[in-house]
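Hello,

Our lab assistant flagged a job as stuck in the queue for most of the afternoon. It eventually completed. Since we weren't sure the result was trustworthy after the delay, we are filing this so someone can double-check. Below is the sequence as submitted and the structure that was eventually returned. Let us know if re-running is recommended.
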Amino acid sequence: MALNVIMLGAPGAGKGTQAELFARAHGLPKISTGDILREGIKKELPLALVAKQKMDRGELVDDNTIVGIVRERLKDPDTKAGFVLDGFPRTVVQGEALDQLMLERGTDALVIVDIVVPEAELVRRLSTRRICSRCGANADPVNAAATTCAVCGGTLVHRSDDNDRVVLERLRVYHDSTKPVVDYYRDRPTFRTVNGAQAPDLVAAEIEATIMDATRAGVGLPLGAQR
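-- returned structure --
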């Protein structure tokens, strides 16, 4: 059975890092709409540049654009054994669209992990976070003194959308638009919460155990039973 995972959490909760770790450990593709958009920005694609303007203001890219990106990505053969979604869905509309996409794939087996971190810690993390200027990877949170990317060797820089004003706006947008997604999934038997305020390796271990437990809980569910 395919292992399909959604990593949820506020900006700064570490869902990107944890999604990458889990995906790598299980040989699954990590699908991040942010990564796809950043690649489009490098290529100066018109739609991606419009999306960048919205992201720089702390706003969300519109649902139709994001759903279209994910729909095309899920057609790739490397998703047959499963996938890890990072940063999608961010609205209930996107969650409903994902349910439909899963049914089109012949399954609705999804494990949903919500990484929970206190807001004060989120603000601290976002205000000091760095990414690679070359590949866009997040800096290793364990090695705060690093100046180069552990993935490609590029220079680590602060994100343009991580200044204090935009950080607060991003958290407001999350609570207004994305937090309802947690409520959308909360009653499903494969929904779990994880303490994201721990050291990254402890978070990863908890996520691993949590997903395996949730997978067992979802075994044998017929289509539509999770909703």
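-- support follow-up --
The delay was a queue issue, not a problem with the job. The result is valid. DSSP finds eight helices and seven strands in the chain. The mean pLDDT is 85.
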